[in-house]
Design brief:
The structure is a single chain. The chain has 512 residues and is of the alpha+beta class. Helices cover 42% and strands 12% of the residues. The chain folds into 3 domains: 117 residues, no CATH class; 131 residues, no CATH class; 156 residues, no CATH class. The strands form 3 sheets. A 5-stranded antiparallel β-sheet has the order 1-2-4-5-3, with helices on both faces. Strands 6-7-9-10-8 form a 5-stranded antiparallel β-sheet, sandwiched between helices. A hairpin with a 5-residue loop joins strand 4 and strand 5. Helix 10 packs parallel to helix 15 and helix 12 crosses helix 14.
């Protein structure tokens, strides 16, 4: 599973910051070192203090203002160090602080400058001790985070009302609450030479495909960038087909979806400071599967999924089919309907393909403007704009009423599968152009080209059209594709993704 567009680089974990020095035993020299590293940065705070019983215990804490919990610093670091008596024993001051004084559940000692800097940037506090060549890193993270709430883009009626936030550890805790097993593994890594963004790979050991996990790690190791701000950057960098309008890596803001995909054998990738998690491999049918399908009965879920699939087919083919029939194959249209269409097109100065393209572009402009405006303005803009502009265009004889209906219908059906909207828009325009030159033959050629492209795609080695058997239509292969079968029929995990432990342990037994 090669990644042709990425070059081999040094792993981020192997790159070292060029700080030019190491910690020494002199407190003043160590403070000078960090003041040189954090030069011209007024957010870094240095607080000197001594033990009131022993003057040999001289310390300084270093932390970034706004990223720490001041109460933890005062109660768990400064107060114990100042007030505790240090016995005259062979134990070093650092060991005394580590084992007997510091009141915190997250303390470690190190002399590694890179590890110290990364911890301070993440909101921990550095404790320097005079006479010690090592320092203590104490967990004091306390910045404000957004509260857990339901994602706006993935709302459902019967699903849990929680979504990921911008805090990586909070997100991992939500996954852990749903999968209480020791087989759930979290592997941390750092990405970005400057941003040093913390990331986590999640999978269930014994279910996830180890080859996919190794390939994911290899692709992440090949990334050489200054900073990563969102999982969208990662998604584009490690994708199998970055130039295709179809995504080979999924994403979601819901922990329940991540938990369900992990149980199928997929791998999740979470990044600090973003609420979107990636899932891989990602196959085509996942565009039409939503969490609501599994929280409702199988009849409701199956009907809704079929409507989404047909909606995608309609949105990419209806404008092209209309142009092909009216321009090349008028004999296939019933005479009364043909007369109605020709009457509506009377006095229209532009070819039908130009009016179709113009209306598609206009509806996309209105949709984009409505999405970027405040909610109360955006809804009015989308509705009023479409009605007023469409009606005015028909009355001005710039476009026919049937073309407005066709374009509006294709735009509405595209909203049923919003995550595939970009690909649907590209295909709608491409099929329209092909139909304007070759009629139905152009549309058929376009569909054949689309199927060839989809069937040749891979997501981490998994066929993109996995389980979409267009020939045999075996019931077992269709259990969670075009329709959502009852839970007691879905006994197996996807066999290409979870190569081990394919049988689900609790399938509910055989039903009549």
């Amino acid at each position: 599973m090669p990644v042709k567009y990425l070059k081999k680089h040094t792993k981020p974990s192997e790159r070292q910051m060029d700080n030019g020095s190491q910690l020494g035993s002199s407190l003043e020299q160590n403070i000078k070192l960090f003041k040189n590293i954090f030069k011209n940065d007024d957010t870094v705070i240095y607080r000197y203090f001594e033990n009131k019983w022993s003057r040999k215990v001289k310390c300084c804490i270093v932390f970034i203002d706004g990223m720490v919990d001041s109460k933890i610093i005062n109660e768990s670091i400064i107060k114990p160090v100042v007030e505790n008596e240090f016995p005259d024993d062979e134990q070093s001051i650092l060991d005394n602080l580590y084992y007997k004084v510091i009141v915190s559940n997250n303390v470690k000692n190190t002399a590694d400058i890179d590890e110290i800097l990364e911890s301070v940037f993440n909101g921990d506090t550095l404790l320097l001790i005079d006479g010690e060549a090592e320092a203590l890193i104490i967990g004091t993270r306390g910045w404000q985070t957004r509260k857990i709430e339901e994602p706006e883009s993935e709302k459902a009626l019967r699903s849990p009302r929680e979504g990921f936030t911008e805090s990586l550890m909070v997100n991992l805790s939500m996954i852990r609450r749903k999968l209480k097993t020791s087989d759930l593994k979290f592997n941390f890594r750092t990405i970005g030479a400057k941003s040093r963004t913390k990331a986590c790979i999640c999978y269930i050991e014994g279910i996830a495909n180890e080859k996919i996990l190794q390939e994911l790690n290899r692709r992440l190791d090949d990334i050489e960038v200054d900073g990563i701000m969102t999982t969208g950057h990662i998604q584009e960098l490690i994708s199998d087909h970055p130039l295709s309008p179809f995504e080979t890596i999924g994403y979601t803001e819901r922990p329940d979806i991540i938990a369900a995909k992990l149980l199928e054998g997929r791998i999740a990738f979470l990044l600090d400071n973003t609420s979107f998690a990636l899932t891989m491999p990602h196959i085509f049918i996942e565009y039409f599967q939503i969490n609501e399908d599994y929280y409702e009965g199988f009849w409701e879920g199956s009907i809704a999924r079929l409507l989404r699939i047909f909606g995608f087919i309609f949105t990419i083919t209806i404008p092209a089919l209309f142009v092909a029939l009216t321009a090349f194959h008028q004999e296939m249209i019933p005479t009364p309907l043909l007369l109605s269409i020709l009457t509506a097109r009377k006095d229209i100065p532009f070819p039908i393909v130009f009016t179709g393209l113009g209306m598609i572009i206009m509806f996309e402009i209105l949709r984009e403007a409505g999405a970027r405006m405040p909610t109360y303005i955006g809804q009015a803009l989308s509705i009023v704009g479409a009605v007023v502009i469409g009606q005015a265009a028909v009355e001005a004889r710039l476009v026919s009423a049937p073309m407005v209906i066709i374009t509006a219908f294709s735009s509405i059906t595209s909203l049923m599968v919003s995550r595939i909207r970009v690909a649907a828009l590209i295909l709608r325009i491409l099929f329209l152009l092909l139909a304007s030159f070759l009629g139905l033959y152009g549309l058929v050629f376009g569909i054949i080209g689309l199927l060839i492209h989809l069937f040749e795609m891979r997501s981490f080695g998994i066929p993109y059209m996995y389980d979409l058997d267009l020939v045999s239509f075996k019931l077992q292969d269709l259990k969670d594709t075009y329709i959502r079968m009852p839970w007691w029929y879905m006994k197996n995990r996807p066999k290409f993704i979870a190569v081990k432990n394919i049988i689900r342990k609790s399938s509910g037994g055989k039903r009549a």
